[in-house]
Specification:
Layout lengths: L4 E16 L12 E15 L2 E14 L7 E17 L2 E10 L31 E9 L3 E9 L9 H5 L3 E11 L2 E10 L5 E9 L4 E17 L8 E18 L4 E10 L5 H14 L6 H6 L12 E9 L19 E10 L4 E14 L4 E13 L10 E12 L1
Antiparallel strand pairs: 1-2, 1-18, 2-3, 3-4, 4-5, 5-6, 6-7, 7-8, 8-9, 9-10, 10-11, 11-12, 12-13, 13-14, 14-15, 15-16, 16-17, 17-18
Length: 405
């Protein structure tokens, strides 16, 4: 094994402008829009059996109001030791340290990322951390058995009150198997927050163009915000029997088009009736100064992992190499490095919409060094009484510059 230290350096600079609006739950905005400039330096390191990923994140490097809110954080995303030993004649792989375990199979939502919730498809700078992990795995030709212990309190970044109260320690067993063109996994896990969890996923390739993926999860207990009467604030409570499920299809064409469609359900989120009740109570209570804190407490429902129970997502992208197959594009060689994509999130019960357009351009890439930019626009709206139309952000315009050296 090489004793050399290998380092990969990535950087990102992100400038954004966000338009705000008055909402029922949060009230009147103090600023019609805000602008910010954030930066990230990401370092990946490998030395013998050690692997690490470290981030230096700078937020509010500049803002229009010049409020001097600059903040810099050094974050250990991952740092773990990985090795293999013979145990009773069986080869066992060990992992020990802070590790990201991404077992989810969805695009819009990955419900099998059990130990740390990872924000999917973020348009701004996002630093994801792992959990403290001790895992022993046995592999044969087509499957894997893993015994795992995790502790999610190793996170350095401060989360919402729901995320902080959901910090867990637990022990579980995972089995993964590959059979032909299909793969499946099953996980049983027990921790001090959920008190028992059973989950699994199935992925199969139907033909050269189509893929199907499904996943499901049941947990005995979970934390969620509970609405009370008009005289009591919304509070975080332990509830029984949470269910999540997801089904999706993936289509890719020879001409470079890529489409993903997914539906998922999360029983832990507020139902449509609960959201309408929250809007009504919030509007009623915010009219009186003495009850405004009670009105603001309903905004805590926006901290749930999914804002609504029923979710639909559509994703389309066009591979940059596909432009060369179009005759009219042969005079526009710069298109060979251009990749557009489009995401739509729908809330079918109340008519809410979040639409995000990405335009990505690779300026150069030598393998060891690269530079690219991304332009993103995100619109949050839909029916006036929908959850997405009552979020404090109306639309976001963002420019990312990314590089590797």
């Amino acid at each position: 094994m090489s004793s050399n230290l290998n380092l990969d350096w990535d950087w990102e600079l992100s400038a954004s402008k966000t338009a705000h609006r008055d909402t029922t739950l949060i009230g009147k905005t103090t600023q019609s829009n805000t602008e910010s400039l954030n930066a990230l330096l990401d370092i990946k390191a490998n030395w013998q059996e050690l692997t690490g990923s470290f981030a230096l994140k700078g937020t509010s490097l500049w803002n229009r109001e010049d409020e001097r809110t600059f903040d810099a954080d050094g974050i250990v995303q991952e740092l773990f030791w990985q090795s293999s030993v013979d145990f009773g004649g069986l080869p066992i792989d060990f992992i020990l340290g802070k590790v990201r375990l991404d077992w989810g199979v969805g695009y819009g939502y990955r419900l099998l990322d059990l130990f740390k919730s990872y924000r999917r498809n973020s348009i701004g700078i996002q630093v994801e951390e792992g959990a403290g992990t001790a895992m022993a795995s046995y592999f044969d030709m087509n499957s894997e058995w893993s015994l795992i212990y995790t502790d999610s309190s190793w996170a350095q970044q401060q989360g919402s009150d729901l995320e902080e109260q959901s910090v867990q320690q637990g022990l579980g067993l995972r089995h993964y198997a590959l059979q032909g063109d299909s793969e499946w996994q099953g996980i049983v896990y027990y921790d001090d927050v959920r008190h028992g969890l059973l989950s699994g996923s199935f992925v199969t390739v139907l033909n050269q163009a189509w893929e199907l993926h499904v996943s499901a999860l049941y947990q005995r207990k979970y934390l969620a915000y509970q609405q009370g009467t008009s005289l009591t604030a919304v509070g975080l409570e332990t509830k029984q029997h949470g269910y999540q499920s997801l089904i999706g299809i993936n289509w890719a064409s020879s001409s470079g088009h890529h489409v993903i469609m997914e539906y998922w359900f999360d029983s832990r989120s507020w139902s449509n009736n609960e959201w309408q009740q929250a809007f009504e109570q919030g509007a009623s209570l915010s009219s009186e100064i003495q009850t405004q804190p009670l009105a603001l407490s309903y905004a805590q429902g926006l901290n749930h992992a999914n804002l609504v129970q029923h979710n639909l997502m559509f994703h389309w992208s066009l591979n940059s190499s596909s432009w060369s197959h179009l005759k009219w594009s042969q005079d526009w060689l710069w298109l060979n490095n251009f990749e557009p994509s489009f995401d739509v999130m729908l809330s079918p019960q109340d008519g809410g919409i979040i639409a995000t357009q990405w335009l990505r351009y690779q300026i150069y890439d030598t393998g060891s060094a690269s530079f690219s930019f991304e332009l993103a626009t995100q619109f949050l709206g839909g029916n006036g009484d929908s959850v997405y139309a009552n979020l404090p952000d109306k639309h976001i315009i963002l420019l990312n510059l990314k590089g590797k050296f």
